[in-house]
Amino acid sequence: MKQGKSVVRSQKGGKGVIRSLAHQSTSDRKLHPAERRGGRVSEPTLCERCGAVLVRRSWRRGGDLKPSHTMLAGAAWTTCPACVQVENEEYLGRVTLDGDLVASSAAALRRRIANVAARAEHTQVERRVVSVDRTADGKLVVLTTSQKLAHRIVHELKKAFGGRATYRWSDDGSLEARLGFGVADKQKKRA
Ligand SMILES: [Zn+2]
Q1: How far is the centre of ligand 1, averaged over its atoms, from the C-alpha of 134 (Å)?
Q2: Percentage of residues of the chain with pLDDT beyond 70
Q3: What mean pLDDT is predicted for residues 53-63?
Q4: Any residues with CB less than 8 A from the CB of 1 and at least 6 apart, and which?
Q5: Could you give the CA distance from residue 49 to residue 157 in angstroms, rounded to a whole number?
Q6: Confidence of residue 10 (pLDDT cuts 50, 70, 90)
Q7: Gyration radius of the chain over CA positions
Q8: 82 C-alpha to ligand 1 centroid (Å)
Q9: pLDDT at site 23
Q10: Ligand 1: distance of its center to the CA of 47 in Å?
Q11: Which of 45-49, 55-59, 167-171 has the lowest average pLDDT?
């Protein structure tokens, strides 16, 4: 198994990420039908970081698959693509929160982001928040492993805190989202 090593580290997300993940799902992770018949299924592949289980070529949360001592003994251990992305800080979505509310309600914003992220990861293990960082000029920047999760975070924050959302696609395919809480954003909303 050379799964972990086949991931190409990209320059801050982008095409490198897409290419390497697509490559993994089509070749490295594909089981030959004979392998499946030959009892390979009873030797599951587990992520050693997050405990996700590879089931029929997609990564799932192992909650309903109770691990037994024997099962773990026979398991193949690897690092799932989402954990590799998080470790390398590769992202496909970036959310920038801007405005006074970022300073006054930072804790509440972070809590909401964490809740959305937990729910997303529960339903689809590959959707993760890579990082939440405060910039020097007082913005909050959230990096996510998927474009969809970036949109989901903006959607939920906007529902709870208001603000004005704008989006654009980067040349590398990542989604750049901005949620503004400033005075200018309010004026634009009314216009
Ligand atoms: Zn993992």
Answers
A1: 26
A2: 73
A3: 80
A4: 28, 45, 76, 78
A5: 29
A6: very low
A7: 19
A8: 6
A9: 43
A10: 5
A11: 55-59
pLDDT confidence of residue 103: 92
CA 173–ligand 1 middle distance (angstroms): 23
CA of 61 to the centre of ligand 1 (A): 9
CA–CA dist 92, 9 (Å, integer): 13
pTM higher than the cut 0.85: no
Q: Are 97 and 142 in contact (CB under 8 A)?
A: yes
The packing angle between helices 147-161 and 106-123, to 10°, is 140
Q: Assess whether pLDDT exceeds 50 at residue 1.
A: no
> Beta strand 175-180 with 93-98: parallel, antiparallel or unpaired?
parallel
What's the CA-to-centroid distance between 100 and ligand 1, angstroms?
A: 36
Tell me the residue type at 57: R
Q: What is the mean pLDDT of the chain?
A: 80
Quote the CA–CA distance of 138 and 23 in Å, as a whole number.
38
Distances in Å between the alpha carbon of 175 and those of 23, 82, 92? 21, 17, 6
154 CA distance to ligand 1 centroid (A)?
24
Please report, as a single letter, which amino acid is at residue 16: G
Q: Report pLDDT for 40.
A: 45
Is 102 in contact with 163 (CB distance < 8 Å)? no
User: In angstroms, what is the span from residue 138 Cα to ligand 1's centroid?
Assistant: 31
